[in-house]
Amino acid sequence: MQASLIDIQPFQADHLDAAVELSRQAGWPHRKEDWAMVLSISKGFVAVDDGRVVGTAMATLLGERCATVNMVIVDESMRGRGLGRKLMDAALDAADDRECRLVATADGLPLYEKLGFVAWGQVVQHQGIPKTPTKPENVAWAPNIDAAELATLDAEAFGADRTPLFAALAQRARFATVKSEGVIQGFAAMRTFGRGEVIGPVVAEDIEIAKDLIAFAMSERPGAFLRVDTTVKAGLGSWLAEQGLAHVGGGIAMRRSTTELPAEKRLKTFALTSQALG
Ligand SMILES: CC(C)(COP(=O)(O)OP(=O)(O)OC[C@H]1O[C@@H](n2cnc3c(N)ncnc32)[C@H](O)[C@@H]1OP(=O)(O)O)[C@@H](O)C(=O)NCCC(=O)NCCS
Prior knowledge:
Aminopeptidase; binds coenzyme A
């Protein structure tokens, strides 16, 4: 079957089970709930061949200027026929003229390069059952979440407004904070994801605060399988490995834009929400 004969349709809730099968086939750990969370804040697309979902892609719109493209998968038996490109075209159309970011796997890299994406960083994925660290005394769970306040702090680090993402996280994640005289110096979210739980995003003034936030989250979940998606630039890789979170993979952070990257601000991103969401 040629890609030109395959329908690209809006991603609906009743496509979620088929999407989970595709991600399982690609070796990704996403559960139905993880797909549903991304879909809840994204414009999604499926490729349908004779009633069967054979591909997916989503554009998560982050305010007026930025979008992430994610969950791009084509069924193994249908690859190399132009379906990936068709799905990407749908996702990029949905993003209008926003700057698009994504994290590319080795499979996706050639396609994204052809579509004008340029590498700007390296994402590294760490996971495992960590040693239980001493609980840092400067970190506490936030009893009430002000999603808008956290989104404002995140925007300083990420360079775009992710209010809908933070509203979705507020329903699913616990947030830990480090404060000094009432000012948030860093925060970390922790939520159920894939095979266990993910710590991220982690946004902080410096790497020591980021380590305290992650160590706090680890100390709260002894024996749990945890995952942290970070960047080489964040400089946490060897520390995470020492804690028992092995480096198991990652990807290339890419963007499609002619604008300069935002200048570094007070707050920086030390861990991603997930590889898909950035
Ligand atoms: C990435 C993926 C979606 C691509 O899907 P696909 O349907 O095979 O892609 P297409 O057939 O549309 O190919 C896209 C383009 O990339 C090119 N391409 C694909 N693989 C390539 C390779 N190894 N080297 C060079 N070019 C390659 C194709 O020639 C095509 O170019 P063209 O449109 O100019 O002809 C698919 O490999 C996949 O699902 N992989 C597993 C999941 C994954 O890693 N997804 C990416 C997440 S970031």
